[in-house]
Amino acid sequence: MPARAITSLFALLVAMGSLTAADKKLTFAERVEITRGLTAEYATLKAPLPRSRKALEVRTDGTYDKQQWDAAGREHGPAARVGDLVQISKVVIEGDRLVLDINGGFRGGRKWYERIEVGVGGSTSPVGRGNSSAPGGVTIALLFPKGVPALAAAEFKKMLAPVLDFEKHSATEQYMDNLPPEIQAAIKEKRAAEGMDREQVLLALGRPRNKVRETLDGVETEDWIYGQPPGKITFVIFAGNKVVRVKETYAGLGGSVAEPLPPR
Fold first, then answer.
1. CA 225 → CA 44, 171, 187, 193, 236, distances in Å?
2. Could you tell me the pTM of the whole model?
3. How would you classify residue 6: left for phi > 0, otherwise alpha for psi between -120 and 50, otherwise beta?
């Protein structure tokens, strides 16, 4: 084989060896799979999301330029806050970036006319009929210096995890994660415990059957009563916004109440 041909072949092999999966162009099928796997997916925000005319850039390790995001927030306000549930409304692959519209992008989310209210005689009502508390929209761009790779949607979700949590589906779950372990355990076991606030009791037991307020020695308390005869009756006693006592007893058919159950 001529020396020139050998040199050319060697150069070709070196060039082929330097290619990575990210350098190769995605096939039509791969693009469809990525788009289909991410479009319409819901996620819970783990970082404040500002509104921005330009796409908010996120690196593959989940980091981003916080100063840039803060500047966008000061200019256009927040799109959504930590704990809000948002949705990917559109997915576009653009060379070195995977572009995701959140809640319809910058022009999506809450409409301008939904913030206007009109009224007569002191009472007002919104002009728009949309959800006035719905988070706004923005666009996120996940950056790939060597081109978007052919990965499963789950892999892209992991890269976005510091900003978008696809494993959680409600702000309630986000709230639960930040509670002390003993309060989390009580809520999961569907019981009230001393130290809980009203919101936590509602998560554990739901709305009470009855509420009774009284003042004893200058201290106002409120009893939330759960259950009805015959069966277990639970009294959750609040002082201010905190549970100070939980009392459980049984009531018979006639409504008579037995001695309280021993403490847990």
1. 34, 27, 17, 14, 6
2. 0.51
3. alpha
Q: Could you give the C-alpha distances from 129 to 25, 112, 134, 137, 185, in angstroms and in order?
A: 45, 12, 12, 18, 40
* Phi, psi for residue 103 in degrees, rounded to 5: 55, 40
Supply the pLDDT for residue 251. Answer: 80
Tokens encoding 207: 């709305």
The first and second tokens of residue 105, run together, are 């992008």
- Domain coordinates in residue numbering, the chain: 22-114+127-176, 179-251
- In this structure, the number of other CB atoms found within 10 A of the CB of residue 243 comes to 21
* Residue 223 burial class via C-beta count within 10 angstroms: exposed 0-12, middle 13-18, buried 19 and up: middle
What are 5-64's pLDDT values in tens digits? Answer: 444 444 444 333 333 444 468 999 999 999 999 998 889 899 999 999 999 999 999 999
Identify the bridge partners of residue 135 per DSSP, sorted by sequence position: none
Contact 136, 105 (CB under 8 A): no
Cα-flanking dihedrals φ and ψ of residue 106, to 5°?
Answer: -60, -35
CATH topology of domain 179-251: Beta-lactamase Inhibitory Protein; Chain:B, domain 1 (3.30.1450)
CA atoms of 200 and 13, how far apart (whole Å): 65
Query: Residue 179: which of 188, 191, 167, 169 has the closest Cα?
Result: 188
Q: Which helix (H) or strand (E) holds 99?
A: strand 97-102
Give the type of residue at 28.
Answer: F
